[in-house]
Amino acid sequence: MKFSRLLLVFFLGYLLVSWFPKTAFWKKTKALNLLKEKRTYYPNAVWMTKLKSKASEAKAFVKQKGYNNNYCFLIDMSLSSGQNRFFIYNLKNDSLQSGGLAAHGNCFEYWLEGHRYSNVVGSGCTSLGKYKIGNSYTGKWGYSYKLHGLDSTNNNAFERTVVLHAHNCVPETEVNDEICQSNGCPTVAPVFLQQLKSIINTSKKPVLLWIYE
Question: Is 3.65.10.10 the CATH number for 42-212?
């Protein structure tokens, strides 16, 4: 009888240990509070080819629309959130200048598994498409930039208060795990925002931000 109880306790403990790390509560807690193991993701031909293709399209777009033709910001949502996926691209030199982490929208779920995109007001999701980076302001999330959606997939961004801002939950370097999630904003690390500010605030023309998958 005692052996059966011990076996049952062991079995239940095993189930708990196996199940708990997969829960939304644990994933969000880990993303927000726990130390993260650093990791380096090496660029591969697939996403570099896609980056170059998007940069080529962006170059034609900024020339046509009168945007900043030295730099653009490209965010590849097909990459892991623990991986650099917010890229500062030098259009003049046709080269990747820098990269940082970026959070994606949780669609107002406690923890969103995978990716979901929406342009609906109140959705809390990331919206794919091109954005014009607008005026800066200091609000709930500190120093931020208003975003104006330029496509049918993101033209509600301004009304949704989807903005470019920083948060301490976003690590400065690549990590092995997923990072925190936002309510639809492309949220970056405070240090990385400083890099973006140096370009945005000295530009006489609007800077293009493009979120794609």
Answer: no
